Amino acid sequence: AMTTISDLPEDVLVELLSLLPARDLTCACGLVCRQWRAVVELTTLWKRKCQREGFYRQALDRSISDWKTFYILCILKRNLIKNPCAEGNFNHWKLDHNEGDKWKVEAMPGAHGTQILDPTVRKYFVTSYGPCFKSQLITLQKEGYWNQLMDEKRPEIVVKDWYAARFDCGCRYELTVRLLSEDYLVLEEFHPEPVVIEQWSDAMWREISHTFQNYPPGVRYIWFQHGGQDTQYWAGWYGIRVTNSSITIGPMTL
Asked: Which residues form the F-box domain (predicted)?
């Protein structure tokens, strides 16, 4: 009798199927037959895909209970903030408050400023003497994070932002990040106390970071807003500087 692919040992079938993209595995291969459907759900298959694509670490063996979800989160993981370093001027940003002499983009390190640690970051956004705030609304489903994944797995959501002052002027920095439901209700919020930087500070760039964990089910959007102003009301752009903002969704191990 002619041998078919169904006659292959399970470990060989795992090796072959691990070469396919995740979308094909979940949307097509599982429909071929009962045997393939069972193989597609095997931990060993998704662990093998993690090994092939550099996501596997031996230290993870005991901490990862769902290698399929881990793999998918690894594939999806990227910065969800668009134009975080001002390379596209204000594209993708909504200017919620744009007072004083308004928002401006400047090149590193700027007057009376310092260089950020990351050499790939070449520009920043800077505020004026009136309140300047800008925001982005991230639609999770558009970014590949479907509702069931967010509700059942609730992967960690990591928020980071970088801010700095000029050496010669005091300023104020604020950050607000909200996890929103389908109806834009606030399910969880990160809104630390505003940071006030005194005049004649060191002008160093500082990072603020927060991780959302064990948040309620139903998160469909992430709203990110930051900004501030100078505290001496000088004409021009003497306020807080921001750049390199990021929002990433799990897994924390990478």
From this structure: 2-49
